[in-house]
Amino acid sequence: MKITIIGAKVIGGTLARKWVAAGHTLAIGVRNTGNPEVQKLVRELGENASLHTVDTAIASGDVVVFAIPGSAMEETIKAHGRLLRGKIVIDAANKTGGKGMNSAAEFAQYAPGAKVFRAFNNLGWENFDDPRFGETVADLLYCGPGDASQAVMERLIEDIGLRPIRLGDLDKVHLADSVAEIWFALVFGQRMGRRLAFKVLTK
Q1: Which domain holds residue 162?
Q2: What is the CATH number of the domain that holds 88?
Q3: Each residue of 24-65: pLDDT tens digit?
């Protein structure tokens, strides 16, 4: 699968490493392709990864993951949203200090026709790097369309090593964000450590 990741910091880099290892082709899109740290990451990813400007990276991917600071989301979506029509889009960025953590409204306004999922926003990167807790695999709670794109989304989650748990369509995005708020409260407020994840149990 051709995956584009916008952003190359710790979340984007961790997801990129796992997806390259699973056999996917990665395009990393950044504003400054001359950044030495980004160039080093792409070299480490190997021949199935390449570095591009944001526009070029988006155009090349079937799936586009936004893993940039939340403060940059609206500007980035507004500038490049026209290229997202028909693509699977994953919003992994958290906007803090505003009215909401997600960018669902911005995608609806500037990228009509994109299939938008909210995922990879409610666990720390350490749990993407290693999603196992002994014999238990952590769950990733996400939301988004329940059509054919759901199977693609769940395959990508499973390729990270997590078990996908769908909360519903994008109208349940507030629930995915609430999971993030719980994670922050436990990790930082209660000082339980970043190696903390969730498991849905049924009987």
Answers
A1: 2-189
A2: 3.40.50.720
A3: 999 999 999 999 999 999 999 999 999 999 999 999 999 999
Phi, psi of 142 (to 5 degrees): -145, 170
pTM of the complete model beyond 0.85 = yes
Query: Would you state the pLDDT for residue 105?
Result: 97
Q: How many domains does the chain fold into?
A: 1
186 burial (CB, 10 Å; 0-12 / 13-18 / 19+) is middle
* Bridge partner residues of 4 (DSSP): 27, 64
Q: Is residue 55 one of the residues assigned to a domain?
A: yes
In a domain, 196, yes or no: no
Which pLDDT tens digit goes with each residue over 80-106? 999 999 999 999 999 987 779 999 999
Q: Would strands 25-29 and 63-66 be described as parallel, antiparallel, or unpaired?
A: unpaired
pLDDT at residue 97, rounded to an integer? 76
Burial of 74 (0-12, 13-18, 19+ CB in 10 A): middle
Alpha helices, DSSP H only, in the chain?
Answer: 10-21, 36-45, 54-60, 73-80, 104-110, 125-129, 149-160, 173-184
Q: Are 51 and 25 in contact (CB under 8 A)?
A: no
Establish if 86 belongs to a structural domain: yes
Q: Examine residue 202 and state whether it is found in any structural domain, yes or no.
A: no
